[in-house]
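We give this protein:

***
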Amino acid sequence: MSDACPRCRYARNKKAGGKLLHGIPEVTDSKQLREVLVTIDHNLRQDEALMQDEAASFIMGVLEAKIGGKEYFLVASSGRNPDPWIEKKHLDGIAYHQGAWETVNPQVPERHTGWWTIRNENVDLDTTIRSVSNPCAAVKLLLGLGRKKPAWKSVEYLRMSEMVFVGRKADDPSKRQWHGKGATSSWTAHSCDACEARIPYLICDVPANQIVD
């Protein structure tokens, strides 16, 4: 990804001192994260109370990152503030980094102001972004990581994957494009427009004192 970052306006592939100026030029997923989502999906479907809501439909996401030598393993679901769909009990049986996963459910700002980056620095979004307050799982994961206040030295990696949970009688409202197999769940092939517009602001790890107006 070589286009300019909307927050700092540097190209994401720009190097300084032999290193990428953006430690996270883009967000990628992995096979291991997709397997984590399969386990969570299975656990959700064993939850009798949840399955009583046959019209349930939401996005669930997982994130792993290593920043400043520390690892983070986060889980989030779209919507449902203040109560998330995914609870601690739904994380049982995850083989990948067993016992390290935790749920995050930050309140997504309602306006274009008051946002923060994964570096926990304040950032305002472009006022032309529509549906700015959509409580999407991907955005919650990045905001949740920012609130962990990582000790910023270097970024080794940041990976994130999403999956859709669709109840037995749900009319999926996300209208996303799918790939994969299965009538009840499938990997998301494309983020929604609101996420595609917001995420570049949130993953910008350039310090505020390096941004020139």
